[in-house]
Amino acid sequence: MKVIKTISEVKKERHNLKGTVGLFPTLGFLHEGHLSLVRQSVRDNNFTISSVFVNPMQFGPSEDFDSYPRDFDRDLTMLEEEGVEFVFMPSTQEMYPEGYDTWVDIENITGKLEGASRPTHFRGVTTVVAKLFNILEPTRAYFGQKDAQQLAVIKKMVKELNMNLEVIACPTVREPDGLAMSSRNTYLKPDERKAATVLYRSLKLAEKLYFEGERDALKIRREMTSLIQQQPAANIDYISIADNETLDEVDKITRPVLVSLAVKIGKPRLIDNLVLE
Ligand code: PAF
Would residue 99 be called left, alpha or beta, if left means φ above 0 and alpha means ψ between -120 and 50 degrees? Predict the structure, then answer.
């Protein structure tokens, strides 16, 4: 498996691939959740390629860019074992040379949920993803449902900028106790790791209430809040019940909604979600 660092070289390699190409873009520090996306791409396409790039533009000034977990050798071994054709691993300078000034900014949908707490995050994501799409010209690109808002934002960008590829959403992969897999789980101390299961338990509580006939979003949010507050290590950033496409908050559940939340457990801020249809 080739590891390519420059845009000019990776474009040449890409043009040698004749057939469908699936792209798995990642920040790295791979886990089983990531590999499920790679495997889906390998099933769907003639070739699968990946980019591993810790994109500084999507981290806010007080966020964890410097300490974000990295193990590139392990990532490359895992990608090779899955049958990835080549990996694009650019430097920051290669992606954002001196004087870089161009941004892809999606309005409205990016100001809610994650965007409300992380105001520059999605501009960084859409800019790097648009650049990767331009450089690597995938037939399909694979993203996890765990980052539901990121997925919605990228789908909107692809549609509204008429980009020539298909965005494939892949289900969240969970630990046996329900915790959604995430590179940031490595920050959890053992007691916090136990407490972190409360995110999924609160989502399942919302689902149970919904299946029992509850349609009042405020009541469901209240029940989720009180369950999470039983964990002293947990600090709620937001709990949202929103239209699954626009991400506008709803009072009554009358159409499919995304139930999503962000909770700090000790140091890491974890997110999770599920859709009620
Ligand atoms: O989800 C991620 O890993 C990142 O946000 C992405 C899509 C690779 C962009 O840097």
Answer: left
231 lines ligand 1 (CB under 6 A): no
| Together in a domain, 13 and 70 | yes
Q: Of all atoms in ligand 1, which is nearest to the CA of residue 144? A: 1
Site to probe by mutation for ligand 1, drawn from 125, 135, 153, 157 as the one with most ligand atoms within 8 Å of Cβ, is 125
- Contact residues for 113 (Cβ-Cβ < 8 A; gap 6+): 149, 238, 240, 242, 247, 260, 262
Does the CB atom of residue 22 touch ligand 1 within 6 A? no
User: Per residue in 115-160, pLDDT tens?
Assistant: 999 999 999 999 999 999 999 999 999 999 999 999 999 999 999 9
Give the number of domains in the chain.
2
Show which of 115, 138, 170 is a domain's final residue: 170
Q: Mind listing the pLDDT tens digit for each residue in 35-76? A: 999 999 999 999 999 999 999 999 999 999 999 999 999 999
The answer on 160 and 129 residing in a single domain is yes
Of 65, 150, 155, the residue with max ligand 1 atoms within 8 A of its CB, to mutate for a pocket test, comes to: 150
Q: Are residues 201 and 238 in the same domain?
A: yes
* Domain boundary residue, one of 105, 135, 170: 170
The pTM of the full predicted model, rounded to 2 decimals, is 0.96
Residue 259 φ/ψ, nearest 5 degrees: -95, 120
Q: Measured in angstroms, how far is the CA atom of residue 213 from the centroid of ligand 1?
A: 36
Question: In angstroms, what CA-CA distances link 178 with 34, 131, 147, 210, 245?
Answer: 16, 34, 16, 19, 25
Whose Cα sits closest to atom 5 in ligand 1? 125
The verdict on 68 and 118 lying in the same domain is: yes
Q: Which residues pair with 29 in a beta bridge?
A: none
* Active site (catalytic) residues: 34
Distance 25 CA to ligand 1 centre (A): 6
